Amino acid sequence: MKKFYARCFLISLSDGYMLFDSGYPADFNAVMSGWPHALYKYLLPVNIKPQDTCLSQLEKENIKAEEIKYIFISHFHADHIGALRDFPNAKFIYSKREYTRLKKLSVFKQVSKGFVSKFLPDDFESRAIYIEDLQVVHNEIFPVCCVLPFAKDIFVVSLPGHTTGQFGLWLPHENTLFAADSAWTKENFTEDALPHWIGLHFCDDVKAFRKTLELLKSLKNTRIILTHGDE
Ligand SMILES: [Zn+2]
Question: How far away, in angstroms, is 181 Cα from ligand 1 center?
Answer without folding.
Answer: 5
